[in-house]
Design brief:
With 134 residues, the chain is α+β, with helices and mostly antiparallel strands. It has one domain. The chain contains 2 helices and 8 strands; from the N terminus they run ββαββββββα. Strand 7 and strand 8 form a beta hairpin.
């Protein structure tokens, strides 16, 4: 893994192209509902135990990395957009939207309340973590 000397985010490739940001994760939640902060805290508590683990703020999002970036959490006005990648479609009514790329599928979930961050949520996003460590 390569660590950017400016933003200290970890990347799979040396000198990997990215948008450097020196933002703190907390800055992304300024002016957002408390429920989003609590939901993010619940997510962080669980996924920080999935090793390897690295987490940092980008310009508008929180990027979670294992061997590669696998989870992008974007605090929006009233919800968190939680995006993860996998090799195959994940079948769940909780999936808000999917986008197909040449070698992976991006799945988006929308979280408005910490109650949505339950075991079912983690079962779904675990697909992204497993895909990232292969």
């Amino acid at each position: 893994m390569w660590e950017c000397p400016t933003c200290h985010r970890l990347f799979k490739n040396t000198n990997q192209s990215h948008m450097c940001s020196t933002k703190d994760i907390g800055e992304l939640f300024v002016g957002k509902p408390d429920a989003l902060v609590l939901a993010y805290d619940d997510i962080y508590q669980v996924i920080s135990g999935w090793k390897p683990f690295s987490c940092g703020a980008s310009v508008h999002s929180i990027i979670v990395t294992s061997k590669t970036a696998w989870l992008i959490i974007k605090p929006m006005k009233k919800e968190l957009d939680v995006k993860f990648y996998s090799a195959h479609p994940v079948d769940s009514e909780r999936i808000h939207r999917t986008t197909t790329y040449s070698n992976k599928i991006a799945h988006h979930l929308r979280i408005r309340d910490p109650i949505q961050v339950d075991q079912g949520f983690f079962d779904i996003i675990r697909h992204g973590f497993e895909f990232s460590i292969k």
